[in-house]
Amino acid sequence: MTDRSRRPAGSGSAVDASELARQFEQLLRTRRLNTLQERSRSRTSSPMPSSSTPASPSPHHPHHHSQHAHGRPLPSQPPSYSSIRSFPIFPTPPQDSASLKFRNLLHVLSVTPMKYENPGLLDEALSHVPLDRLYAEAEEECQILQAEAASMGENVKPTWGYQDCVIKALLRWIHVDACEEAWDNPRLYTEGWNRRMAYCIAFSIDGATDVTRRYVRNPAKHGLDRSRAPDEVLLWVIHEIRRMRRENLSKEERRRLVKEDEREERELRGYVAQSIATELSRLNPNGVSAPAPGDEVKVPVSAAATTTGQSGVERTGQPNPDPSRRHR
């Protein structure tokens, strides 16, 4: 494309982000248009054997084409359109046997956290969590919020209390590998061991979440085909498990869990955006590959536990201070 030959304004080493974004959007439009045109040509070229017949008009031709149109077997489901990934997916109940089998497997696995009751092991796990630092940071943040509320008036209450500040750091799934002594390092398997993964589903007593995007940051390099079931079916099964686990909870608890799910979904989407930005940052308009800043992100990931320490093995992040419910 001619747009690639344009150099961004500014110094020779600086890169205009807006120009790169515009070029990337134009490239996506061109690829989608080419894909749609190829599909259109493939569909129109499928009844080519009729073109080899003589061109003389025949009264049977309209009847022949109508038979071809009506006799064509209708597909059981629409094509996957794997090259167009920007459309949202909607939960769809499983229909085929493979999807039903995958649904049953997820339901069986979701029961495991319900049976996991070992207070001694949980206390041992808590001994490895930097609780003192978390409590100190929560106390400091609480004092800042109290001072902010006091500056706004006498009857103004702070937005967050001390317990809220502690809880804020415990609102996401955490990766723990006891065999490798790894804590909050989900990219250990893909980028560290060069393993390929298709699914990574996290379960708790409150539901389930597809956290594959946290483990597989580059699906083209480290991802496997998600062929067990369509993503729409997987989303439907996850919502089904959540409904089953939360049906006896109060409205306030369900509302809190929904907000937690939305917050984690934004975080997982951020990983996808970060991966795309990393790939774009490697592109240099001058034709020279730039150093990959994404490789430097692996270090802060393991160090992220120092800022978002957790208190559980499967799902740390229980805003309920009740010790009986913190092992999720």
TrEMBL record:
<feature type="compositionally biased region" description="Polar residues">
    <location>
        <begin position="304"/>
        <end position="319"/>
    </location>
</feature>
<feature type="region of interest" description="Disordered">
    <location>
        <begin position="26"/>
        <end position="88"/>
    </location>
</feature>
<dbReference type="GO" id="GO:0006516">
    <property type="term" value="P:glycoprotein catabolic process"/>
</dbReference>
<feature type="region of interest" description="Disordered">
    <location>
        <begin position="281"/>
        <end position="328"/>
    </location>
</feature>
<dbReference type="GO" id="GO:0005829">
    <property type="term" value="C:cytosol"/>
</dbReference>
<dbReference type="InterPro" id="IPR050883">
    <property type="entry name" value="PNGase"/>
</dbReference>
<dbReference type="InterPro" id="IPR038765">
    <property type="entry name" value="Papain-like_cys_pep_sf"/>
</dbReference>
<feature type="region of interest" description="Disordered">
    <location>
        <begin position="1"/>
        <end position="20"/>
    </location>
</feature>
<dbReference type="GO" id="GO:0000224">
    <property type="term" value="F:peptide-N4-(N-acetyl-beta-glucosaminyl)asparagine amidase activity"/>
</dbReference>
<dbReference type="GO" id="GO:0005634">
    <property type="term" value="C:nucleus"/>
</dbReference>
<protein>
    <submittedName>
        <fullName>Peptidase</fullName>
    </submittedName>
</protein>
<feature type="compositionally biased region" description="Low complexity">
    <location>
        <begin position="33"/>
        <end position="55"/>
    </location>
</feature>
<feature type="domain" description="Rad4/PNGase transglutaminase-like fold">
    <location>
        <begin position="172"/>
        <end position="268"/>
    </location>
</feature>
<dbReference type="Pfam" id="PF03835">
    <property type="entry name" value="Rad4"/>
</dbReference>
<feature type="compositionally biased region" description="Basic residues">
    <location>
        <begin position="60"/>
        <end position="71"/>
    </location>
</feature>
<dbReference type="InterPro" id="IPR018325">
    <property type="entry name" value="Rad4/PNGase_transGLS-fold"/>
</dbReference>
